[in-house]
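Weekly sync, protein design subgroup
Attendees: M.S., D.O., the rotation student, P.L. (late)

Item 1: inverse folding check
M.S. brought a backbone from last month's batch and wanted to see whether the design step gives back something sensible before we order anything. D.O. pointed out we never logged the input encoding, so this time it goes straight into the notes. Structure tokens as presented (375 positions):
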């Protein structure tokens, strides 16, 4: 049986999720119409319109992000997610409260998405973003969009220059397609690149948004603020329409199938196994998060590059660095120590940081089927 997002989201209004979907094993497998292996993998060659880029208020990246398919292929793969444009409403006037004022609204292991910019730290509860997917915010004096796609498990940040983003209602490879409210270009979240509209082939400026637990976040950032349920919308923020992360159940189980057919299939990992994905110039790569948690420090040889993957145990985060001089680093307790016995926190290693984000395996390999995987 195939389910639309409209059906899943409506389940929280009309009946309980368990009653709608049958049991905690989650939504049944998708039924492909044609084979996903028929999708041509060929790097994007399109260039953005220079006039449109010069006229937009959106901050556009100096270099295009890599895209593994022609834009026409991605447009052909767009599906109706079952809700109209803005049917999942973005939060455009977010309200926050100090961590100390939250009391017992969250359990210790409840997921929140953490952002630190210009010395300002904020947490965005997954229980709220699952109902809105985009928060148009200002952090450290800069206009940003904090975004979350529950179907691909991806939390990502983008600079927006005062232009708001909204939820288009469409998906590609199960991933949220955002639209900007300036010219209505269409931006798949995971690609950060417009596939249609005036800014087609242009890429946004990204920044990290990290998965954390409430307990780890408040311990690390006791003076930070947290998004409140004062969103301007009536929602049951205690009910996730897709399942639960604490404990993991429903759609989020790593061995369950996606609702929508992925662009490509790859059985090296269970469909919703979480990986740390990156797109360095040498080509996309992914690192199994459980492996990184266990090893805590990984030296990765990727094409002609040497990279260093580091796990921060205090926040359960993975960081990726470029190590061109192939310096030797070792792990001592919770510090990373170099050849001169200088010690660094996992998020402060003196190497070039490579942008990376967490994603479900099927989503990452759907967009980047040529990925090199370290599992």
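Designed sequence read out in the meeting:
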């Amino acid at each position: 049986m195939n389910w639309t997002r409209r059906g899943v989201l409506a389940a929280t209004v009309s009946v309980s999720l368990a009653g709608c979907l049958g049991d905690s094993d989650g939504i049944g497998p998708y039924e492909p119409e044609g084979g996903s292996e028929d999708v041509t993998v060929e790097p994007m060659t399109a260039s953005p319109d220079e006039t449109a880029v010069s006229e937009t208020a959106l901050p556009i990246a100096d270099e295009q992000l890599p895209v593994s398919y022609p834009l026409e292929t991605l447009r052909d793969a767009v599906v109706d997610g079952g809700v109209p444009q803005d049917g999942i409403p973005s939060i455009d006037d977010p309200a926050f409260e100090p961590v100390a004022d939250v009391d017992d609204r969250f359990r210790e292991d409840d997921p929140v998405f953490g952002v630190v910019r210009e010395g300002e730290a904020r947490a965005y509860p997954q229980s709220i973003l699952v109902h809105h997917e985009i928060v148009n915010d200002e952090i450290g004096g800069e206009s940003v969009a904090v975004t979350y796609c529950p179907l691909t498990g991806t939390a990502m940040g983008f600079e927006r220059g005062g232009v708001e983003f909204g939820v288009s209602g469409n998906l590609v490879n199960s991933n949220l397609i955002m639209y900007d409210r300036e010219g209505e270009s269409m931006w798949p979240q995971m690609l950060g690149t417009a596939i249609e509209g005036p800014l087609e082939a242009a890429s946004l400026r990204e920044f990290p948004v990290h998965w954390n637990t409430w307990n780890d976040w408040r311990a690390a950032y006791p003076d930070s603020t947290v998004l409140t349920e004062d969103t301007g919308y009536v929602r049951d923020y205690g009910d996730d329409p897709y399942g639960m992360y604490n404990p993991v159940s429903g759609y989020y189980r790593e061995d369950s199938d996606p609702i929508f057919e992925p662009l490509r299939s790859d059985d090296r990992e269970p469909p919703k196994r979480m990986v740390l994905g990156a797109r360095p110039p040498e080509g996309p790569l992914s690192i199994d998060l459980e492996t990184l948690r266990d090893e805590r420090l990984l030296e990765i040889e990727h094409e002609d590059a040497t990279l260093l993957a580091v796990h921060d145990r205090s926040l359960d985060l993975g960081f990726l660095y470029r190590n061109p001089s192939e310096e030797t680093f070792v792990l001592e307790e919770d510090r990373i120590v170099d050849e001169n016995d200088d010690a660094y926190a996992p998020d402060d290693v003196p190497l070039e940081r490579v942008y990376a984000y967490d994603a479900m395996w099927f989503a990452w390999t759907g967009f980047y089927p040529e990925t090199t995987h370290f599992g």
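Discussion: Residues 5-243 form one domain. The chain has two domains: 5-243, 274-374.
Action: P.L. to compare against the previous round before Friday.
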